[in-house]
């Protein structure tokens, strides 16, 4: 009898995993490898971040990325692990192949991680195989940008989220096994589990915010539920060590949080789960309760409710770049596990099991038919089987932008799935094109403002139908505002898919095959670094945000400086800034100010605490913040700016080294037989 059950388990594994991987291979992997050029939504941003690590900041993960938003700290506000792995792979294979291999690995490992998770919860191979198949259904059907789903990964570019998803199930399963069997484990096994759990959670933290919070929810529930014994001390210590391992990244993230304006999104979910699916899983859990199935223990239901509630919470109030609806996949995958009760009612009669199975098949068939045939009612309710079928856009492999002296604002053709493709493509392909905006605006000091500014310019262009020669009084005020911001950020060019009448054309550039050339047109001549010769206002730190808001909403060019102690002197007429040298590989730039004494100089690079400045005589200079988030120094002669590690960075690195030392000590004290016996 036992042999038959084992054989049945193997048959179930072969069947359900064959269905999963045949589907993934035919509908996802093969067309993805054939067509994808890394062009949809966030994907160009992820690739550019990895390109920056490999070509600029390596071996360190973080550095000053000058290509967007007047510069921003690369991966300071975003988990750096995905980009770093992609950069390492790029040393041995082309970036496109590296991206595809990592993507396929992320998806291909997910069913195996789900199966491992189900087995650790105590389900048989047959039950775990069925659950894996059912848990993959939301991943393929739910076409919203919720993370973890195939739609999220390919159409929206949530690739680091997808890589963290298998780790989440591995972590959850291992934590459940360790906590529930804690009293039976010897101290060597506990030590090994501590190492494995700490490393797994640290990897999740470094990959993605949402999956990190989901894993911390799991850890929190188990810690609180088992607070009556030493297990909670064990789990709490493991969580602390995991966060300390990530200290090199978490420390600066916390310390520098005030220098960006992150936002969150609360999705008004008119459609959460279709009725047939909801009835299917609720019925399954009702059977589990009737059957007193201990494998669905209280922590499981607590987490199910937690993820369901979290899907409606707006994490934006905490200033995190997180969309709360991204907890939907965690909720749905756990819900699908209840359906195993249709097949494994251990205390049910055969007739009861048959009736449950018929109900399951009918409900599931109705759900599949509805999602494959019905027209989606709105963007949230696009639930169709995912098939990758997006041919790439053909871009000019060698665009000639000519000599450039400032930043570029792109007025592109509207694209639903490729809103920032050209900026990131041109930044990588030329290595010199510096744009006003890009992806991941939440992690840039000027990101939200410049993204809003770009929308303002595009709206202005659309209203005036590409003609700036005839403007009424209201439009002239708007044009003055556009010029003010362009001057303030050193935006010299407008790169438009249609020429703007009234702006001088520098050159025409072919960017898209089969499309007219884009026009590179001059909109400003204000240099990136210039002396301040007009009066400015000094503002106290308490009133700084209000002053920046005034500056952003006004066409008046008056500059605001954070610091009442800033000297009110101005640069005399004839003051010149020359010999501007930008070496982004070395993370520094320098310039000469021809003036007999210190004068205020506006540096149109985003303000950030990691920047240091000094005079030619090695005298350190105080950097003031200038509206909205630029830099100003009082200097003359040769001045150098350098970007590097600061106090919070060193403290975070120290925390990581201490945690690594602890993990290494535990590893050394663990007998080798424990590892070889796994």
Q: What does the model show?
A:
It contains 21 helices and 17 strands. With 678 residues, the chain is of the alpha+beta class. A 6-stranded mixed β-sheet has the order 7-12-16-15-9-8, with helices on one face. A hairpin with a 4-residue loop joins strand 13 and strand 14. It is globular, with a radius of gyration of 28 Å.
Strand content: 5-15%
Unreliable residue stretches:
1-7, 263-273, 376-381
Distance between the amino and carboxyl termini: 28 Å
What's the β-strand tally? 17
Based on helices, strands and strand pairing, what is the structural class?
Answer: alpha+beta
Q: Mind describing the biggest β-sheet?
A: 6 strands, mixed
| Shape, principal axes of CA atoms | globular
Q: State mean pLDDT (0 to 100 scale).
A: 85
As laid out across the biggest beta sheet, the strand order is 7-12-16-15-9-8
Number of helices: 21
Q: How large is the radius of gyration?
A: 28 Å
Helix content range of the residues, please? 40-55%
């Amino acid at each position: 009898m036992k042999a038959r059950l084992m054989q049945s388990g193997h048959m179930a594994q072969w069947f359900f995993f064959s269905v999963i991987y045949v589907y993934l291979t035919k509908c996802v992997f093969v067309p993805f490898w054939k067509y994808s050029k890394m062009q949809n939504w966030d994907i160009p941003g992820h690739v550019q971040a990895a390109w920056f690590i490999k070509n600029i900041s390596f071996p360190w993960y973080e550095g000053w990325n000058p290509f967007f938003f007047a510069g921003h700290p690369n991966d300071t506000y975003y988990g750096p692990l995905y980009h770093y792995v992609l950069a390492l792979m790029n040393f041995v294979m082309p970036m496109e192949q590296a991206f595809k291999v990592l993507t396929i690995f992320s998806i291909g490992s997910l069913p195996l991680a789900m199966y491992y998770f189900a087995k650790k919860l105590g389900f048989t191979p047959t039950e775990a195989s069925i659950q894996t198949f059912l848990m993959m259904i939301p991943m393929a059907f739910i076409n919203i940008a919720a993370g973890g789903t195939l739609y999220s990964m390919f159409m929206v570019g949530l690739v680091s989220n997808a890589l963290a998803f298998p780790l989440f199930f591995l972590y959850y399963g291992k934590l459940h096994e360790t906590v529930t069997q804690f009293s039976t484990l010897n101290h060597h096994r506990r030590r090994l589990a501590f190492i494995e759990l700490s490393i797994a959670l640290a990897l999740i933290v470094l990959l993605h915010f949402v999956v990190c919070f989901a894993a911390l929810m799991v850890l929190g529930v188990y810690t609180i539920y088992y607070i009556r014994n030493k297990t909670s001390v064990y789990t709490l210590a493991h969580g602390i060590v995991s966060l300390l391992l990530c200290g090199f990244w978490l420390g600066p993230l916390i310390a520098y949080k005030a220098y960006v304006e992150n936002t969150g999104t609360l999705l008004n979910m008119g459609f959460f789960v279709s009725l047939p699916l909801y009835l299917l899983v609720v019925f399954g859990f009702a059977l589990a309760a009737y059957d007193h199935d201990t494998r669905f223990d209280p922590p499981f239901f607590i987490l199910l409710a937690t993820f369901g509630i979290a899907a409606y919470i707006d994490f934006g109030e905490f200033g995190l770049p997180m969309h709360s609806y991204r907890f939907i996949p965690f909720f749905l995958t756990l819900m699908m596990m209840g359906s195993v009760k249709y097949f494994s009612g251990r205390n049910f009669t055969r007739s009861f099991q048959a009736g449950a199975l018929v109900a399951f098949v009918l409900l599931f068939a109705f759900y599949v038919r509805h999602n494959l045939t019905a027209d989606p009612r709105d963007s949230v309710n696009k639930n169709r089987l995912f098939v990758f079928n997006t041919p790439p856009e053909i871009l000019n492999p060698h665009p000639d932008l000519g000599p450039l002296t400032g930043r570029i604002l792109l007025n592109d053709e509207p694209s639903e799935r490729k809103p920032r493709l050209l900026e990131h493509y041109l930044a990588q392909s030329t290595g010199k094109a510096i744009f006003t905006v890009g992806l991941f605006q939440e992690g840039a000091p000027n990101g939200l403002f410049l993204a809003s500014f770009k929308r303002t310019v595009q709206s202005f262009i659309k209203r005036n139908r590409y003609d700036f020669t005839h403007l009424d009084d209201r439009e002239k005020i708007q044009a003055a505002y556009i010029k003010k911001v362009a001057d303030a950020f050193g935006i010299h060019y407008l790169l438009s898919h249609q020429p703007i009448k009234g702006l001088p054309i520098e050159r025409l550039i072919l960017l898209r095959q089969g499309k007219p050339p884009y026009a590179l047109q001059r909109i400003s001549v204000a240099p990136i670094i210039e002396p301040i010769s007009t009066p400015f206002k000094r503002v106290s730190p308490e009133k700084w945000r209000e002053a920046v808001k005034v500056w952003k909403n006004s066409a008046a060019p008056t500059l605001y400086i954070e610091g009442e102690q800033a000297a009110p002197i101005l640069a005399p007429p004839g003051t010149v800034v020359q010999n501007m040298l930008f070496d982004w590989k070395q993370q520094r730039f320098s310039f000469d100010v021809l003036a007999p004494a210190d004068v205020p100089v506006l540096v149109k690079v985003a303000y950030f605490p990691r920047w240091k400045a000094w005079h030619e005589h090695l005298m350190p200079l105080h950097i003031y913040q200038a509206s909205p988030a630029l830099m100003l120094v009082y200097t003359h002669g040769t001045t150098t700016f350098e970007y590097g590690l600061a106090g919070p960075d060193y403290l975070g690195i120290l925390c990581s080294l201490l945690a690594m030392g602890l993990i290494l000590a535990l590893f050394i004290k663990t007998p080798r037989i424990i590892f070889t016996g796994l």
